[in-house]
Amino acid sequence: MTLMILGLLIFLGLHSVRIFADDWRTAMRARLGENGWKGLYSLLSLAGFGLLLWGYGLARQQPVVVWSPPVFMRHIAAPLMVLSFILLVAAYVPRNGIKARLHHPMTLAVKVWALAHLLANGTLHDIILFGSFLVWSVLLFRSARKRDAAAGTVYPPGKGVATAVTVVAGFAVSVLFAHWLHRMLIGVSPF
């Protein structure tokens, strides 16, 4: 579990710099240059993510059960995951109404993903992993909305076709992931 926590600290710590140390981030980008900053940030993020995955895999071998979620929690988690995938796709489809309205759909996707997994899993390593991502995404979303307000950021209005494409693609990816990719990549079938 120590490796997973270390990976979380590195990965989420790096991804929290804009929340807690935006001035430092700006100074480092100026000092290292845009490519230098992105390179260092990427290497450290990958190292943190690798430790997180390795530690999570080790923790799964000797799980500490904190609570046993009732089966109906999976039925609550499933539609939340569909919503999470739609929000994730909304971050990438230009001019969709979801992004126009919510502004930071990827951060919201992480929030919904983490909540869904907290509802459906009761082991200590799952609670630490998904709870950490939930807290981080709440803080990041609030910080991003404050930055937008301070900068006067205006998002372009969404278009119906782009929004429909977003919803259909998000739903399709969620079905693909739930029925095939989750088992293949994570080793657990959600159903």
Automatic annotation (TrEMBL):
Taxonomy of the source species: Bacteria, Pseudomonadati, Pseudomonadota, Betaproteobacteria, Burkholderiales
List the keywords (alphabetical). Membrane, Transmembrane, Transmembrane helix
Does this UniProt record's set of keywords contain Transmembrane? yes
Membrane-spanning intervals of the chain:
40-59, 71-93, 113-141, 161-181
Q: Name one GO cellular component term.
A: membrane
One Pfam family here: NnrU
The organism's place on the tree of life at top rank? Bacteria
As for membrane topology, the entry says: Multi-pass membrane protein
Q: What is its main location?
A: membrane
Residue span, NnrU domain: 3-190
Task: State whether keyword Lipoprotein applies.
Answer: no
State the name under which the record lists this protein.
Answer: Protein NrnU
